[in-house]
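Bug #77: duplicate submission created two jobs. Keeping one. Sequence:
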Amino acid sequence: MEKTPRGTSVGVDDPYEFAGVCDHLTGEGRCRYAFEHYEHDPDFARDRATEDYECPVIDPETDETWADCPHFRSRNRDRECTRCGLEEKRMAHDDERPLLEEHHLSYARDGDRLSHEITIYLCRWCHAKVHDSWARITDDASPDPEAIAELEGRRGREQSELGFESAAERYDSGDGDG
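Kept job's structure:
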C-alpha cells in the first residue's frame, strides 16, 4: 500500500485508481499547463506546442496514461467522503472545523519530489482511520456515529437560522416592556 513520507498509510495500492481527468486538460483536449506554465518545463511545453498543445493521454491512438504525464494533477471536487459518503456541511460565517479534509494519495518516491498530485476528500473520521490503522479507502464503510451527530447538529443549526423570528422576539430582554 502507498505510504506518506512519515510511513503512514494512504489507504490505496494504486492512487491512479482514484484519479479523474487531469486538472490541466481543457474541454478541447489541450494541455493548459504547457501553455500557461511553459517556463516551468520548457521541453515539455515545446513538445506540446509542436502538437498544438494536444494532450497525448486522451488520444485513443496512443498508449499513454495519466501516470506517463510529468505534470498530471487530479483533485477531486466532490464534497463528500470518498470512503463513507458523508457530505460536507459548512456553516456560513462560522469557524467550525470542516467535516471533510483533503487526502493526498500520491507522495514522493525514493526521497524524490512529488510525482503527481492526486487528491480526494475524506471525512476527518475516515481520514484518521486511513492514516492511523489498516483502513482502506475502498472499504465498505458507513459514516462514523460522531460524524453523523456533527452533520445533524449543523443541519439543525441551519434549519433554525431559516426560521423567521422578528427582531423583537430575537432580542427580547424578557422584562415584558417590549
